[in-house]
Fold each of these.
Amino acid sequence: MATQAREPNPETAEKTPRRRFTPAYKLKILAQTDHASEGQIGAILRKEGLYSSLLSTWRRQRDEGTLGALKPKKRGPKPKQDPEQKELERLRRRVAQLEHKLETAELIIDVQKSLAIARDPARDDRAVREDLIAQAGELSERTGLRQACEALGVSRATVYRRRRPAPVKSPRPRRTPRALSPGERQEVLEMLHSERFVDKAPEVIVALLLDEGRWVCSARTMYRLLAQDGEVRERRQQRRHTEYKRPELLATAPNQVWSWDVTWLRGPTRGQYYYLYVLLDIYSRCVVGWTLAHRESADLAARLLRTTYDKQQLDLIN
């Protein structure tokens, strides 16, 4: 049965056939571009509709030898390889890998032996570590850095830091000292002693000078300069509390001085508390007596003291 040819559809565009370059065309383009300038090469590529990468590929193919190298490669399945030949090549690669590993292991063992022989017990640990790092760097050129560091027990990060030392930082410029010079200190003291500011506090003086657009120093600096000369004291007419020395009790043996306290302990219901009376020996930090009560009372405290005296075999009260 005859089939009728299908007519082309005018509404759909036909597929553009893929461009194929013959060896003669490639040699022609290469001959034109070999002796052309950069601008002329660009004009040729645009005129022929080619990419510069094609020129690099064609030149490489031409340098390989004959014109046959410019022939397009045939596509299709690769020829099947003999299974015995394939297994033989795999074994050869495996043997080469094992020989390389054996050579690397022998080299590492030789380095470890040399280090063990040359190691001196009197050497500093830091010097030994630096020697190991140097040996790891030399060994890494033949075995790789990872294997060298694992064999000698050195961190790879340390070797990398030795290879690329940190740049030397330029010293920072020293700050200009902001302390007042002796002349400036004397000027501030004279201003504080002047008739205008003699009765004013340093905070008020700083505020008045700022209103005038002047800055001499901070209020804290003024206080510090006045304190150096003993000129900071209370000038108000008021009574000051006398400073008494705090009483101190010293114990040189147990049961000489006791301390006591009453602690409130929360009970099972809201608002209910228990009272824990504790007697503590300040020398031995030993709890000599305690009791738990429902209320706080002086009678309970006195009873606890008498019981504790009897327990400690002390005769301190009548």
Amino acid sequence: MKTKSNLMKRGFTLVELMIVVAIIGVLAALAIYGVRRYLASAKTSEAKNTLGAVSRSAAAAFERENAKSEELAEGAESATASHVLCSTATTIPATVPKGKKYQPKTTNGSDFDSGDMTSGWKCLKFNMTQPIYYQYQYTSGAVATGSSNPAKCDAAPCYEAMATGDLDADGVLSQFSQTGKVANGELKKASQLFLQDEYE
């Protein structure tokens, strides 16, 4: 006959221990997924913030009087409008970083310091000096290479700012894109940032 003291000393059964181990395993798997998602989200914020800055720079450049200087004859008009979009910029870096960061060059005329008063990154007055996970493009008046954005820049005057990345180096690319079109003398941006395979 079992006494009260014997019942008090009873330990966990094997089934109970297996259930606890299974619960801990599920919680660990969820935690790992959550941390990975958090880290990926932190990295993708680089692309979102950068495209927002490039888009604001494009709008600011459009509002500036940045047309080329011309000598006009009496009664003649200038060849270009006073409010124009910056021309296409150099793609930085040339290839998409695969799970690594790229350190932009800061020498005059290199990377984000390329272009002039009416074209490229100098026209946009946009520069990045810190290491980046993504490849950045700014295209004016034509569809950016490989763009899948349904609100794409398909006819001048318009622009598309695009970030392309491969954070886990698996060959599947993520794409972020922001477009804007000039209509009735005003630059109008797309309502949303386009995202494709954000976390790959």
Amino acid sequence: MCGRYASFRADQDLADEFAIATVADDVRLLPPSWNVAPTDGVRIVVERADRGTGEVSRQLRLARWGLVPSWASGPAVGGRMINARAESLTDRRAFARPFAVRRALLPADGYYEWQAQPVAPGTGPAPRQPFYIHPTDGACAALAGLYEFWKDPTKPEDDPGRWLVTAAVITREATGQLAAVHPRQPLILPQSAWGTWLSPAVGAEEARGLLQVEPPPLTVTAVSTAVNAVAHDGPELLRPREPG
């Protein structure tokens, strides 16, 4: 799974890297984070058509991490849908429709994963060592994701807050050195795949071909357990763990 990640790159840097035409105003208010957690506000890259002209443009928008299906009775379900397994996207009602028409990229500087450590029998639960995993070349990791709109039935039609935008990160089976840390990893798409993944004109069948692309070279670094607490947030979380 992917349960925490870092996203601290400046909006303008993301706009340049992803060739974004529009940065939403609420995105500019989102502070950088070295410990993004479920239900936090996150930046998503999408391609949407203008309601008036029909022209499609690439946009940087704000969403809440944890997908809430349009048919859900309330937003609480999103806390259980932070990830979507690549192998079963079309089998789950909550993910099948977004996979066909609402795909996104979640820009991340890196993500965290936890590895269970061996313990002697009878000594209690195994401790878990956190690792920070990021592109070796320092580029942004484009996490493949889905997004959805949920309408709050308790709010009037003219209330701009009646719509909640939420997102989930797609995960796949871990490969290579990552499999030694955790059996799952987020699907990271190369720049050559961004246009196809984001295009509203591309359906589920064509997009399915991107679910097994190889990730970029990644660096895996053991870090302090300070990241375990969502209250901790800052660049010090990325420091390599002191030995011993």
